[in-house]
Amino acid sequence: MKNFEKYSYLLSKNKDFQKLFYAKFITYMGDWFLTVPLLSIIYEITNSPLITSIVLVVQSAPYVILGSFGGFLADKFDRKVVISISEFLSGCAVLLIMYSVSTENVVFILLSFSLLGVVNCAYMPASDAALPNVVSRDNLPEANVLNFSTWGIAAGLGAGLGGFLSEFLSRNQLFTINFLSFMFSAFLVFLIKTNLSANILSTSENEKVKFKDGLNFVLSDNKIFYLTITKGMFGISAAGLLSLFTILSLEVYDTGDLGAGLMWSARGIGAFIGPVMFRYLFGKTDQKLLSTIGPSIMIWGIFYFLIPFSPTLYVTTILLVLGHCGGGAQWAFSSYGIQILTPDNIRGRIAGLDYSFYFLMFTISNLIIGYLATIYDVMTLFTVFPALGFSVGFFWFLRTRSFWKSIKT
């Protein structure tokens, strides 16, 4: 019960955490009103699994190049301002995407979507780096669970609701909801009163913030190194399968946007349940919590491997929920590990490197799996890559299990 009392405290008493939490929730939920219909639009125009995969590639590619730079900005400038500006510019990018869709020019649509990643590159590292500054150290594990759960809940509601509303609303109306979500999120973050950096940097200190210091810090500590590459190691097998949800829905289950939205929703529900469950069952100490990361990836691999044997969309949905309980847990607790082991003045750059590597693997995975989907049956890919993911999780567990004993809880 103590864990749930902390959740209650954070969501009812800590006003600045609430603003950060709800801003992220609103943004992420609005994103699904853009992503789900956009994947369908591209597939309808091109009828190509590879080009459909490229939608997610162009979304992630800017983070590969600029994610680390976004983390640098999060350490060099006021994180509240960085997050607010990023959200505002993201809303403007959605308007461009809306216009590009009306032209039915695939290249223009993809370029517009990539711009959203460019202007939003600082959001995630700045938000992760800011979290320990709005909560106490004792409440940080629960804050991380809730922080990541914003994505899970938003994906569960947003993807499902986006797929459902696509039956009644035009795609431009769905895009407008996404635009408004960015604007409101920027406003909420701007209202935060707590300083989102531990100390305000003087001019001389600001000039000393160097990008390479983050990379040197990662390479100097095995624990930080493995925590920083965790999401990417998971993403190489997992990320590219996501774009295939649309193909499963349209060609295997014949359920259109509704089915794709349901599968994305299942992913989000699992990502919400997993961190809460793992924290409750295994999180009495930091050592135990970080030790669950490898097994979490293995759980994802097991349930995704079962998808080709699923007789219906609804069984697949259950498998996705269970699989992403593991996927969500590894994401939340690898971020938590970085936060507790990294000083505030460099935390943004470490988070930026973390996201850069993840989105690099995300991009590579989508290109590889998108290409293979043009040659092999989709269900074959849902066999091979989950097996690869299980192997990655097993390797990560064996390689890191001795690292966490030295951590002070």
Quaternary state reads single chain
Choose one word for the global shape: globular
Q: CATH superfamily name?
A: MFS general substrate transporter like domains
Secondary-structure arrangement, i.e. CATH architecture: Up-down Bundle
Taken together, the total number of domains comes to 1
Number of helices: 18
Helix content estimate: over 70%
Biggest β-sheet: count, sense, barrel?
Answer: none
The stretches of 5 or more residues where confidence is low (pLDDT under 50) are none
Q: Briefly note the CATH topology name.
A: Growth Hormone, Chain: A
Q: Total strand count, please?
A: 0
Which CATH first-tier class would you pick? Mainly Alpha
Strand content: under 5%
The succession of helices and strands, N to C, reads HHHHHHHHHHHHHHHHHH
Radius of gyration: 20 Å
Going by helix content, strand content and strand pairing, the class is mainly alpha
Alpha-carbon distance between the two ends: 20 Å
> What would the average pLDDT be, to the nearest integer?
85
Give an account of the 3D structure.
The protein is an all-alpha fold. It has a single domain (13-190, 213-399), classed as Growth Hormone, Chain: A, CATH 1.20.1250.20. It has 18 helices and no strands. Helix 4 (79-103) runs antiparallel to helix 8 (171-190), helix 7 (140-165) runs antiparallel to helix 13 and helix 15 (293-305) runs antiparallel to helix 16. The model has no long low-confidence stretch (mean pLDDT 85).
